[in-house]
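To assess whether ligand presence alters the predicted conformation, the chain was also submitted together with copper (II) ion. Input:
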Amino acid sequence: MFSRRYVVKFSAAAPVAAALGTLLMQRCELIQANSPEVAHFHVPLPIPPVLRPVRSDDEADYYEITQREAQVEILPGLHTTVWGYEGIFPGPTIKARHGRTTVIRHLNRLAIPTVVHLHGGATPSESDGFPTELQIPDGHPSYVLQSAMCDVTPSSSDPGHGDRSRSSNSTRTYVYPNKQRAATLWYHDHAMGFNGRNIYMGLAGLYLIEDEEEAALPLPRGICDIPLMLFMRTFGADGALVYNSVGHTGAQGDVMLVNGAPWPRLEVARRKYRFRILNASNATTFRLALSSGKPLVQIATDGGLLPEPVTSPSIPLAMAERVEVVIDFAEYSSGSTLVLQNLEMAGVLGKIMRFDVTGPEVHDDSSVPQRLATMTALRPEAAVRTREFRFGGITAFNMPPVAWAINGNRFDPCRVDAAPRLGDTEIWHFYNSPSRFHSRIHPPHIHLVQFQILERNGKAPYSHETGWKDTLRLEPGEDARVIMRFGGYKGRYILHCHNLEHEDYEMMARFDVV
Ligand code: C2O
Ligand code: CU
Ligand code: CU
């Protein structure tokens, strides 16, 4: 019941919202959204700026980010208030190099408590953004909450990191060692109970790790290496973001944003491009495909390059998953257009953005090699144990779910639900356990580690998910066995559903690496 207390203290409106949420969960499968009309394929695709370090030394690059409110133009002619890293949405991109530490000092100038998590990062516990380790803005009335928070920090062997006073102010420094392979990661808010709202309001940005193995490949690079962050949003007539958790079934929307722009267009030359695609939506799933009907050539997944490219007619993408594809526009004539589609939606939401092919065929020395990376398969025999995690709803009196849960438990930051030993290899068996009253997609996500999928529904995983993963899509009734090694760091971490409204309400569990 910890979080109930927590929510109540945080906002007087929370109990009402919680009650309403329960009510809505019973009533509303879909709330009709009506954002202002936007012309499609009109706004040029923005690319989030790469943040410059404030200083660098032999081992590390040091950054400063201010989380603040800002007015931006998302829908042409209208102003939208966002909560942004550096006041922009999406936040600035951080570029990191394997083996070189990134140190980011975050200042919270918002009106609400926040905490930053690097999704996909192998991060020491004290920098991982545990949902109660909040950065409280100066003058915020709820600072007293710190005393109510669970104080067991198993990683406090280092006294410098166990100091709770660090988190009771508006500034926090996060340290990312980047001892992991090249990959497209992202950083986003992780405040307990309000994560869905905070990310919806803009608190998300990309974090790219580069390494030598990848740099040696002839893949498209520079301005031909383009991130696409997909966000589904709803706007009011005045341009304001309208957040509706839909009774904690998940915030949907009726405007497709890519890198913060509605249904944008990108002029491309007749050559190859690499696209790093992240589903940064709260609760919208995708199945990516090209309107030309040509297959997608996938080179990477959540945890970086696949061993070899995978060609598929379409690629499903749940919340927080990443795929990287290479599209060769030399196959199209100048003047042709092609649309990146979401086959899971009809009408305008079935379209994501448009590529406008221009100019003559250009010299292109990039290519997609048949061998991309080495990947050693983790052997099931190496696993010291198997744990089961069932993702479902808590129902009472044959009513729709009153909360989301893992193994029947709501999140309690003080309860340790699994305690793998440092260095151990384990198998985690995830189940999406629907009932007559709730049947939803749940994408389980594990902090700290990248895993390999051993089995999906008793069979081999899909070809698009054969690389390193940190999030996987589970349809109602599906199950998957994943294997990973808990290397790196001791301390407390979490595992949760990446439908952000499920996570907030409270499909999340704590695990401690001991
Ligand atoms: Cu995208 Cu707990 O994270
Ligand atoms: Cu994460
Ligand atoms: Cu879920």
